[in-house]
Design a protein that fits this description.
By secondary structure, the protein is of the alpha+beta class. It has three domains: 2-142 and 253-348, Rossmann fold (3-Layer(aba) Sandwich), CATH 3.40.50.1820; 159-231, no CATH class; 355-547, Jelly Rolls (Sandwich). Helix content is 21%, strand content 31%.
């Protein structure tokens, strides 16, 4: 460990923190140069701690030390400078607990600790909070969730795209010199090659259990990650071990959740906040106009449009000043959701699903959305060829999908006045298929008069998991009710614009490819080109329910 002081901040590097099993983790400490006990903000990371603070401006340690906080940035187990094997499935919560309680006893800490960080560092906050360390008083998870969107806007899919994330962690371990020369020389170039275009080279490999990256691998990280997220995607014993089904109603640590508008985490974070507030915990949520990977605003700038002023660093200090120093609570409302069309922030004390004020648009045969249930029965077909999956389309401006063999599109008439959407968008469609399984992937779009489309929200249900996480294969040509959640939305549809609902059978690589066999994907080698019918009639009133804000 070494230390130096600069600009009123004392820095100590590679501070060793012992875990209960004897493994030593290391972190960098930044604290005010003046002696005395101060509250501390912990940032546990899977990236290298010694460069992370400079890479993400909103977490600049100097800003927090100037406001009277110490900041401790720690490499997670098995990464960076920390010892041990990286283990997402057993160590995250315990290591967080041990680190917090060790820091609380140090002479520079007043015993009050908060946590910060985005993406996986946000997940680590939730895992630590679930362990209920006595000195953790508040957290601020950015762009993350514990659910990985399970049952929030999709059901039945495995999250095998995270295999690439896992490969990156293993590459870091190789580059950090954790292995002997022979192992490093063999596997570093191999993994570097494997990660190039890994969705095609790894995730489309048949069967998934024989992905090249798994073949003869000596690394527990790769094998365990596959076992949990691919082979065990619907095994709730493994899901619980990983923390993805965490019962947030039992979490008593107040959380300030922050998500970018274009992040899929916006849906679960609204749910996380609602769950905690229903159980008496003063949590807050902010959904602001950031794109994935963007650093939210610095202390000296507004958000990207300049129309809404959110100093996110100042708000973090206000949050922690309240919970760690006993100052007054922040004045901002519990729910704030940026309307990306009007460039204004909606805020309120409550967030409801809005279904009491929802408007139903019914799918009409031939590609229309209408107010009335169709008087006669019609069916529209979309085909899914597993050999040629359609690409995933994220939120934001996109090319509108034209109806064709592989997709359906239903558009409303132009709305006569501005429509304010606020709540949980959901859909019910009636499906039949000639395959044992099919995917119903929906996108709700705002289509401008010039034809420009903007994806507002999306959702998906794998048909054999239509009733929960027990597989129920389809019978040929029987009609099934498929419910799809498209997520929590605050959005304004301008007069003259149309709503369009797009339906496809794939969105690769966000979702694994459905081969139509209803077999477990890890060992599935079959393939079936499915022909799927969406039924529209009084008996089968396929519809999308859009919550409208009360005037």
């Amino acid at each position: 460990m070494n230390a130096y002081g600069q600009n009123g901040m004392l820095c100590e590097f590679n501070v060793e923190t012992p875990m209960r099993d004897g493994v030593v983790l290391r972190g960098d400490l930044y604290r005010p140069a003046e002696q005395g006990k101060v509250p501390l903000l912990l940032w546990r990371t899977i990236f290298r701690k010694n460069t992370l603070g400079r890479a993400f401006g909103q977490y600049d340690p100097a800003y927090f030390t100037q406001h009277g906080y110490a900041v401790f940035i720690q490499d997670a187990r098995g990464l960076g400078e920390s010892d041990g094997e990286f283990d997402r499935f057993t160590a995250d919560g315990k290591d967080g607990y041990d680190t917090i309680e060790w820091l609380a006893k140090q002479p520079y800490c007043n015993g009050n600790i908060g946590m910060i960080g985005n993406y996986y560092a946000g997940y680590l906050q939730l895992m630590a909070a679930a362990e209920q360390p006595p000195h953790l008083k508040a957290i601020c998870p950015f762009q993350t969730s514990v659910s990985i969107n399970r049952d929030c806007d999709n059901r039945g899919f495995l999250f095998y795209s995270h295999v690439g994330w896992c490969m990156s962690r293993q590459l870091n371990r190789l580059r950090d010199g954790r292995y002997d020369k022979e192992t490093t020389d063999k596997y570093l170039p191999l993994l570097t090659e494997y990660i190039r275009d890994y969705p095609t080279r790894q995730l489309l490999h048949r069967p998934l259990s024989e992905m090249p990256v798994l073949k003869d691998t000596p690394f527990p990280l790769l094998k365990n990650y596959y076992r949990h997220l691919v082979a065990g995607y619907d095994d709730f014993a493994l899901i619980h071990k990983e923390g993805r089904d965490m019962d947030l109603s039992t979490m008593r640590v107040p959380a300030f959740y922050v998500s970018g508008w274009y992040d899929s985490s916006r849906n679960p974070l609204v749910e996380h906040c609602r769950t905690q507030r229903k159980n008496g915990v003063d949590s807050r949520v902010l959904v602001a106009p950031w794109k994935p990977g963007d650093a939210p605003a610095r202390a000296d700038s507004a958000l990207e449009t300049g129309e809404i002023d959110v100093d996110i660093q100042r708000e973090m200090v206000e949050w922690f000043d309240h919970w760690l120093l006993g100052k007054k609570a922040p004045a901002w409302k519990p729910y704030r959701y940026y309307d990306i069309v009007t460039r204004t922030a909606w805020e309120n004390d409550d967030w409801t699903d809005g279904q009491n004020d929802a408007r139903a648009w019914y799918l009409q045969g031939g590609g229309a959305l209408g107010d009335a249930v169709p008087s006669s029965e019609t069916c529209d077909e979309y085909m899914h060829d597993p050999a040629h999956p359609l690409p995933f389309v994220g939120y934001g401006v996109c090319k509108a999908t034209a109806a064709g063999r592989n997709s359906l599109r239903y558009a409303s008439q132009p709305v006569g006045q501005n429509v304010s959407i606020r709540g949980l968008v959901k859909a019910t469609v009636y499906l039949s298929s000639d395959a044992k399984d099919a995917d119903v992937i929906l996108r709700l779009c705002d289509v401008a008069p010039d034809g420009t489309a903007f994806v507002i929200c999306d959702g998906a249900t794998r048909a054999r998991y239509r009733n929960g996480w027990v597989s129920e294969p389809l019978e040929r040509n029987q009609v099934y009710t498929i419910d799809v959640l498209l997520g929590h939305v605050r959005y304004t549809l301008f007069a003259g614009h149309r709503l369009a609902l797009e339906i496809t059978g794939s969105a690769f690589p966000k979702y694994d490819v459905n081969y139509g066999t209803a077999e477990r994907p890890a060992n599935d080698t079959g393939s079936f080109v499915s022909h799927n019918l969406i039924h529209c009639s009084a008996a089968y009133p396929s519809q999308i329910s859009v919550p409208l804000e009360r005037k």
